[in-house]
Amino acid sequence: MKGFAGFLRQDLDAVTAGLRLSWSSGVVEGHVNRVKTLKRAMYGRASFELFRTRILTQP
């Protein structure tokens, strides 16, 4: 726990902004997670064109 508290103190401005501001990057993180999951699932099995099509057509 001591190490975690030290880490938070190092970036106090970012922690404060994260707690105070109303916007979040959660939606972007969700899209990044989806793309990484697709990339892992298709690695070595499909062409880049199929990967690109799946990224652009799925919601």
Automatic annotation (TrEMBL):
Q: What is this protein called?
A: Transposase IS204/IS1001/IS1096/IS1165 DDE domain-containing protein
Note the PANTHER family from the entry: TRANSPOSASE FOR INSERTION SEQUENCE ELEMENT IS1557
Outline the extent of the Transposase IS204/IS1001/IS1096/IS1165 DDE domain.
1-55
Q: Which domain of life is it from?
A: Bacteria
Show the Pfam families listed in the entry: DDE_Tnp_ISL3
